[in-house]
Design goal:
The chain is an alpha+beta fold. It has helices at residues 114-118, 122-140, 145-152, 193-209, 212-220, 229-246; strands at 10-13, 19-24, 27-30, 62-63, 68-70, 75-76, 102-103, 111-112, 158-161, 167-169, 174-177, 181-184, 190-191, 222-223, 227-228, 257-260. A three-stranded antiparallel β-sheet has the order 1-2-3, with no helix packed on it.
Amino acid sequence: MTRPDGAKEYRFFDHLGSSRAVLGINGFTYSDYAPFGGLLAGGTESRKGFIGKEKDRESDLRNHGVRLFDDEAGRFLSIDPLWEKYKLLTPYQYGANNPLMISDPDGMKLWLHKDDVKNPSPAFRKWYKEFKKAIKYLNSGKASGVLARLHKSKDVTYIRPTFSETRYEADKKTIYWSAEYGLRLSNGYTQTPALGLIHEGGHRALELEKTPEQMKELLEKSDNKFENKEEQQVYEKYENPAAVKLGEPLAPDHGGQIEETDGSDQRNPDMPVVTTVPLETLND
């Protein structure tokens, strides 16, 4: 880059976007950071250092746009505006308490970096291993049809890790899938994380099948059991048929709570399980 005085300097960044070294007319200057962004002894921080955020010299806080961040404590000073999407995490946390893999550049949403896919971290590898296990489990019951249709569609659908409940965000065309958390239904039974992947895939599939006007109409029509007609169709067309094939319990309504399981194809062992006919007797 060229400075206002015309001098050129070259900056070197790490996988999180933090400035780690600057080469200028006086040679190299280096910056080393603690996991949450505190400058380590001996380092010289550039104006925009840790993940490219400027540090206020008076308050000693970093401005992440929406919130101020204390890199010594590893915490924001105010509640996450999107705390409802990350209910399992403290609303003051930074990067799901995993700053080596995740950055939180605006104080709101978490971002997985491209380097974690090209050079996967242990956490991402674990998630991807569970994802493959979930697909194998769904295929074993011939229950992955909706995902196959999404895969073949000319319209792209993204699947990414999440650290809270599984969900679909239509504006991003993205299914955020948790490999650890299944759903404890309002009747006490539990469903696997894998079935949650089918449910959210159903939202995306329905979106591709319907016109925007039809989707708007479905979302606006209330339903006593499933909140609205769009949710009702997701259950009836996608989740329930898959649940029957897999021998999983049917949801009595749209209620329930996320619950940690022993794996993407497992239910909580402390919860009752519904058994149906053997998988080999079912047809696709």
